[in-house]
Amino acid sequence: MTLRTQARSLLGHLLVPVWRLLFRIASVRRRSVQDQLDTVLGSGPLARRFCAMQVRSEMESLLTLLAERAPRTVVEIGTARGGTLWLLSRVAAVDALLISVDLPDRDGATGYRAWRERVYRSFGRRAQRISLVRGNSHDASTVEKVRAALDGRQVSLLFVDGDHSYEGVRADWRAYGSLLAPDGLVVFHDIVPGPEEFVGGVPRFWRELRDGRPHREIVDDWGQGGYGLGILLPNRVDEGPGGLNRGAGAPAASPQLSCGA
Question: Which 3 state secondary structure label does DSSP give 67?
Fold first, then answer.
């Protein structure tokens, strides 16, 4: 670990009480979907450090859908900067269990830094519980840790945004899809075709998975070069008129997000 990395890690630990206080204030003052999105997609300090790597309009549509269901058991594959975990905690049931899986920190190259765990654990509101599982989502030991955290619960919402390779997203689906409740939802991020280094094999896997299955696609612009949310619905759920597809404008450059380190 370099001296600079050590200094950044120490600063992160020192600032944990500040971040937790700011999120607590946001929990009280920011109750609408728009306010919640501003917290991690706006221009404030929380958005700079805990950015949700999402297209705002897409996430707004998803949160509106999830708020109606208030999922009680959430599993997120890929914690990253924690912004999406924050948003999911806002629409989950007040007594929900939220489990988020990501790689261990390796000098900031993969996963997330250790000090962030203390912030992420504070996201739970009221009787919610946040469980953070650090490990490769494909490893059997990680899957067992998730099972242990579930303690017999079935998953209401599975949010897949981890390894973007074709083999990686397929492995996550096989490992965690079996934990779904009969009426559970699965959300895949980055279903819109784009540069290989940006979306990997997710668009291809999504196209294969959705065929013949009830699904919705939340996409701001199919030419945006990435992002987009694909929702796999339980067989007995009606998709509703028109789904949630939006926009098919001219091809655009890959969306860029400004997130702090």
Answer: helix
Q: Give the separation between CA 206 and CA 201, rounded to whole angstroms.
A: 9
Domain 3-232 = CATH 3.40.50.1970: no
What global pTM score does this model have?
0.90
Please check whether residue 50 is in contact with residue 83, taking contact to mean a CB–CB distance below 8 angstroms: yes
In the chain, what are the domain boundaries?
Answer: 3-232
| DSSP designation for 234 | P
Beta bridge partners of 101: 77, 133
Helix (H) / strand (E) containing 102: strand 97-102
pLDDT in tens, 63-86: 999 999 999 999 999 999 999 999
Q: Which helix (H) or strand (E) holds 188?
A: strand 180-189
Report which of residues 179 and 7 the model is more confident about.
179
Minimal CA–CA distance to 202: which of 247, 234, 231, 163?
Answer: 163
Please tell me whether residue 68 adopts helix, strand or coil conformation: helix
Q: Which amino acid, 224?
A: Q
Print the SS3 string covering 235-256. Answer: CCCCCCCCCCCCCCCCCCCCCC
C-beta of residue 201 within 8 angstroms of C-beta of residue 163? no
Question: How far, in Å, CA of 129 to CA of 143, rounded?
Answer: 19
